[in-house]
Amino acid sequence: MNKNAREKMKKIFKGFVKPDILVIFLINFIVLTNLLLLSCAVQTTKELGFKKEDAQVHFKMAEDYYNRGEYSNAIKEYKIVEQIDPNFPNIHMALGSSYIQIAWYERAEEELLKQKALTPQNINVYLNLGVAYKNLKKYEDSLNMYLKVIEINPEYADAYYNMGILCLENLNLLEQAIYYFKRFIALAPHDERAIKLKKWIEEQEKINKRLGQFIEDCNIMSYADRVFVIPAKAGIQRKGAGFPFSRE
């Protein structure tokens, strides 16, 4: 193509394609190309001559990526391991943990359920399923997973901690949360979380005690109001008949 022809092509191209549209097109093209290359790489592991022992090499590479926080790269390597050896130990556990790290909880659930079928007594499977279900807003399922951990190992401290957080943040069960936190503190008294939780529980119990006394006072006044004039109480000033009143 001569110079004049190239110039004409440029003018035609500029007339039909705006710069911002071109940038978007190029970005999408690059992303799709990378995905296609990854897919081809995974699908042709056997064709490229990978041996079963190569799975361990790629698993080690995946672990290195995971420990550096490069979770997408870790997933790529774990998927290669799965292609080479579908029965590689704990491969679904590794994939599930990696998907949790990138907040792809649906895929994490899929992989962890596969691992659960293979190793039904693996505590870490249930712990990670509990995390995945919590983030999928399946709170009862999450609690059941943590309870399964306790069934397998009644002294597994982190399960009690996770149940406490779940009850406090998502199930609105304050008393149950405090119970689980106390169990965690008893099992891991020197954990930094236990030290902070102990102070928090002490404050909550003080609040609950004051609230209990407040409710009791209200009930006494409510009963007395139906029978006779309420006698003066220290620290309480009547504001008309019954509620509301304020502490002085």
How would you characterize the overall build of this protein?
The chain is mainly alpha-helical and 248 residues long. Helix content is 73%, strand content 2%. Strands 1-2 form a two-stranded antiparallel sheet. Helix 2 runs parallel beside helix 4, helix 4 runs antiparallel to helix 5 (91-101) and helix 8 (139-152) packs antiparallel against helix 9 (157-169).
What is the makeup of the main sheet? 2 strands, antiparallel
What is the string of helix and strand elements?
A: HHHHHHHHHHHEE
Strand runs, count: 2
Approximately how much beta-strand content do the residues carry? under 5%
Q: Give average pLDDT, whole number.
A: 79
SS element count, helices: 11
Rg over CA atoms: 31 Å
Structural class, please? mainly alpha
Summarize the structure.
The protein is mostly helical and 248 residues long.
